[in-house]
Amino acid sequence: MTAETTVTTTAAPEAAGRLLDVRNLHVTYASGAAAVRGVDLAVDAGQKLGVAGESGCGKSTLALALLRLLPAGTKVTGEILLDGEDVLAMKWGRVRAVRWAGASIVFQGAMHSLNAVHRIGDQIAEPILLHKKATPAGAKKKARELLEHVGLPGARADAYPHELSGGQRQRVMIAMALACDPRLIIADEPTTALDVMIQAQILRLIEQLVAEQDLGLIMISHDLAVLSDTCDRLAVMYAGRVVEEGPAEDVYERAQHPYGKALSAAFPRIGDPSSRFAPRGLPGDPPDPSALPSGCTFHPRCPVALDVCATEDQSLRAAGAEHSAACVHVGAPVPEPSAPAVEGAP
Ligand SMILES: Nc1ncnc2c1ncn2[C@@H]1O[C@H](COP(=O)(O)OP(=O)(O)OP(=O)(O)O)[C@@H](O)[C@H]1O
């Protein structure tokens, strides 16, 4: 995001020890696409939050908004309290200081994020030097240590990105994200381009680093199964809103929102061979964020929509212990199936 981006914020109250507290975040692109619409999220140190949803539901927009990386002309409102300080209210100098050192992002597709003509050690050292965290010799040494920390030999610092495998490059991206000792890591589809074995290794590495360093983690993926395996909590997004949120296992195994249920049914259950070969898809596509349907934005695809869903949207409401979902059916008594009409009955 550049200085031309419109950012509106209200004064930040004390955020009682929360690492990240996102309140009522809205993001509208210059095109009019309302990509994020009133998102609330919280992450504590040591906590792993998974953000799930189909392509186009606003996950990456949310990630980019957290560090003000959205393009010029994008309108952003709400609050993003990082260690109690509102990122949306920061001057640009402070935003630059917070990137890498307060929070950093691991993007998908490391080959595109790394610079092909620079040695990876120099690329890891770059943010360390930018943030004046070490001398050039110290940054070089730290780059090698970071490589070793993510399971690569320090000598690989002299390699160019094309000399590494996809999994090794993603390890480099993780090393780079850790370079300035951030407290929060945002991982946007960090394993999407990798094969299943390497994917599992990278996920375990991220888990290990988060636990070791008591970091907060936001992991973004379309894959609810991967998220439920890695994260403590899950937030399910649809058309720019969080429609379901709660403990990871609960949301994956006992989704309450019809969209959460459909997303969960689309992925095989770990340890349940009967579900392995029968993932179910959801018919239709997510709506265009420039022309959203009225009422609940999911109602045109919802198998249990009522008439009211076409006109009234629902807020998140309790769907279990620390579990909430934004659906008219949540908390409502299950309707009795109607008796078949009997001809001639009074
Ligand atoms: N720079 C942009 N200008 C206008 N609209 C955009 C821009 N970037 C994204 N969008 C739109 O915003 C919506 C949300 O996109 P976003 O990339 O955040 O979704 P996503 O859930 O991360 O999808 P994916 O999983 O495919 O990355 C989409 O409709 C997308 O077309």
Automatic annotation (TrEMBL):
Annotated spans, Disordered: 274-294
GO molecular function: ATP binding; ATP hydrolysis activity
Database matches in InterPro entries: AAA+_ATPase (IPR003593), ABC_Ni/Peptide_Import (IPR050388), ABC_transporter-like_ATP-bd (IPR003439), ABC_transporter-like_CS (IPR017871), Oligopep_ABC_C (IPR013563), P-loop_NTPase (IPR027417)
Gene Ontology, cellular component aspect: plasma membrane
Keywords: ATP-binding, Cell membrane, Membrane, Nucleotide-binding, Transport
Keyword Cytoplasm attributed: no
UniProt subcellular location: Cell membrane
Domain of life according to the entry: Bacteria
GO BP, sorted A to Z: peptide transport
Recorded topology in the membrane: Peripheral membrane protein
SMART domains the UniProt entry points to: AAA (SM00382)
Gene3D superfamilies: P-loop containing nucleotide triphosphate hydrolases
SUPFAM superfamilies the record matches: P-loop containing nucleoside triphosphate hydrolases
Keyword Cell membrane appears in the UniProt entry: yes
Domain ABC transporter: 20-264
NCBIfam families documented for this protein: oligo_HPY
Protein name in UniProt: Putative peptide import ATP-binding protein
Gene source species: Streptomyces aurantiacus JA 4570
